[in-house]
Specification:
The chain has one domain. It is built from four helices and no strands. Helix 1 packs across helix 4 and helix 2 runs antiparallel to helix 4.
Length: 95
């Protein structure tokens, strides 16, 4: 999925400034778009090749891959990662 494709899906769903977005609707949106991204498991988050033994190593590999990937696809992937991290922070605040 390219950044333009992601942008079109997001703005169609939430408006040009994401004014209709909230944590629940963004979480549902991620579930729908993640399977469309290369390197994702069906219905799940972005994954790396499985060679990394732990979370820190997996994220290090993911960030390294974003340095060398197609910039358009990397931007879409990083946007989704940022939303995932924000949703995690919102959930932690609610607990």
């Amino acid at each position: 999925m390219t950044l333009d494709e992601l942008r079109n899906l997001a703005t169609a769903r939430f408006g040009p400034r994401l004014e209709r977005a909230d944590p629940e609707s963004l979480a549902q949106f991620l579930l729908e778009v993640q399977p469309l991204l290369p390197g994702t498991q069906e219905g799940g988050p972005i994954s790396v090749d499985g060679a990394a033994p732990g979370y820190v190593e997996a994220m290090r590999e993911y960030f390294a891959e974003t340095l060398y990937g197609d910039p358009d696809r990397v931007a879409a992937s990083l946007w989704i990662t940022a939303v995932e991290m924000w949703l995690g922070a919102v959930q932690a605040l609610d607990e």
